[in-house]
Amino acid sequence: MEVKLVNLTKIFSKKEGDVCAVDHINITIPNGKLVGLLGPSGCGKSTTLYMIAGLHRPSDGQIFFGETEVSKYPPEKRGIGLVFQNYALYPHLTVKENIMFPLENKKMPKKEALEKAQKYAALVGIENLMDRKPGQLSGGQQQRVAIARALVKEPEVLLLDEPLSNLDARLRLQTREEIKRIQKNTGVTTIFVTHDQEEAMSISDEIVVMNFGVVHQIGKPQDVYNEPIDMFVAKFLGTPPINILPAKVVNSKIKLFDDEFKEDVKIDFVEGQELNIGIRPEFVQIDENGKYEIHVEMVEYIGRDKSILFHFKGQESTCKAIVPSNLMVEPDSDIKINFNRFFLFDKEGKRLV
Ligand SMILES: Nc1ncnc2c1ncn2[C@@H]1O[C@H](COP(=O)(O)OP(=O)(O)O)[C@@H](O)[C@H]1O
Ligand SMILES: [Mg+2]
Predict the structure, then answer these.
(1) Cystine design at 23: which of 106, 132, 213, 327 (Cβ 3.0–4.6 Å)?
(2) Ligand 1 closest atom vs CA 213
(3) Is the pLDDT of residue 34 over 90?
(4) pLDDT tens, position by position, 121-168
(5) Atom 17, ligand 1: which residue's CA is nearest?
(6) Any atom of ligand 1 within 6 Å of the Cβ of 352
(7) What is the DSSP letter of 326?
(8) Looking at beta carbons, which pairs linking 229-234 to residues 24 or more positions away fall under 8 Å?
(9) Which ligand is nearest to the CA of 45?
(10) What is the DSSP string of 75-134?
(11) CATH topology of domain 243-346
(12) Does ligand 1 lie within 6 Å of residue 55's CB atom?
């Protein structure tokens, strides 16, 4: 089921004044795809999801499921499955009863309900836990019960709100692969909310990057990473994060520190204009003929690569580089580098190059 959000807006009225949690967003979630809604805490992800679910009424705009506008439908009429961060299982019911609960609500005959419950329990790999109570399960198992309970209604749209946040690091990795597999197997259109960029990048067919209730960029994870539309997106994606170096236009040339940065950047600059140069850690190349002299502060091995903490000679703020592990770099040494790529942003963060 394609999900389309048109100028979708939510304003919360509070004593202190109105909060525009979601501000005229336009997103199309393609049928059968997993789309990650990504952004920092408070940027409006959950509010967006709850409007799609029918738990919040939009202040403006529309929601379409396929051709049908569902903006005014109650949640139970939308054909959605919803999974929250905190599982929200019924503690006094067994796993089986928890999964069957939505079907009994729909007055499905018991035998059929049980068959469906078993089918989805097997799909998420908890078929041998059916008689346990939620308190007897690990976090990852509980979350899989919650997913089975959401899937058992065979929803057209699956909505997941930070479903992995309460799991420890190892389980989080494992469960996210599981979610990806389940989504592929069922083909259910899925919207996955997270503030974790790595999680969103790894699981999503497409990501939607939001901040302050506004959509900054939509695209395939790798495309958004490689071609961020602005400095917010560039900074939000990637670990270690991108290095941002302040620069200025002097005599029609970009000056980084006191040197000319690149000769071949062709855009119309305003004299004195302030810019930001974005260098991802992997854009840094160690090069004995390199233009920039740096001081290496720390070297950290991270498997195939090593991460270098450094500062440019005569500068204070630190930067990070990622280079292949086999390159010799000593901590507390001076070396030269070049950049094999860069982004250029204006002062407001708009990408220029
Ligand atoms: N029920 C509510 N009443 C008032 N303000 C809310 C409510 N829910 C969320 N907000 C506000 O809306 C903004 C977006 O919140 P939310 O959608 O929960 O963000 P996220 O899920 O991205 O962390 C925040 O400023 C939050 O305080
Ligand atoms: Mg949230």
Answers:
(1) 213
(2) 14
(3) yes
(4) 998 889 999 999 999 999 889 989 999 999 999 999 999 999 998 888
(5) 44
(6) no
(7) T
(8) 229/351, 230/345, 230/349, 230/350, 230/351, 231/276, 231/278, 231/343, 231/345, 231/349, 231/350, 231/351, 232/349, 233/209, 234/278, 234/343, 234/345, 234/351
(9) 1
(10) GGGS-EEEE-TT----TTS-HHHHHHHHHHHTT--HHHHHHHHHHHHHHTT-GGGTTS-G
(11) OB fold (Dihydrolipoamide Acetyltransferase, E2P) (2.40.50)
(12) no
Write down the domain spans for the chain: 3-236, 243-346
Tokens (6 digits) for 144: 């899989």
Q: Which positions ≥6 away from 13 have C-beta within 8 Å?
A: none
How remote is the CA of residue 248 from the centroid of ligand 2, in Å?
38
pLDDT band, very low/low/confident/very high, at 258 (cuts 50, 70, 90): confident
Q: Which residue has the tokens 């059916």?
A: 130
Tokens of 49: 């999801």
Look at residues 254, 229, 231, 256 and name the one whose alpha carbon lies nearest to residue 242.
Answer: 231
Instruction: Determine the atom of ligand 1 nearest the C-alpha atom of 210.
Output: 22
Helix, strand or coil for residue 161?
Answer: strand
Residue nearest to atom 7 of ligand 1 (CA): 12
Q: Which CATH architecture has domain 3-236?
A: 3-Layer(aba) Sandwich (3.40)
- Answer yes or no: is pLDDT of 64 > 90: yes
| Ligand whose nearest atom lies closest to the CA of 59 | 1
Q: Check: CB of residue 320 under 8 Å from CB of residue 305.
A: no
Please work out whether the CB of residue 46 comes within 6 Å of at least one atom of ligand 1. Answer: yes
Using an 8 Å Cβ cutoff, are 23 and 216 in contact? no
Identify the CA nearest to 229 among candidates 344, 351, 131, 137: 351
Please list the helix, strand and coil fractions of the chain in percent, rounded to the nearest 5, in that order. 25, 35, 35
Indicate whether residue 21 lines ligand 1 (CB < 6 A). Answer: yes
| Residue 59 pLDDT class (50, 70, 90 cuts) | very high
Pocket test for ligand 1, best of 5, 8, 11, 12 (most atoms within 8 A of CB): 12
Assess whether the C-beta atom of 41 lies below 6 angstroms from ligand 1.
yes
> Minimum-distance ligand to the CA of 42?
1
Q: For residue 82, is pLDDT > 80?
A: yes
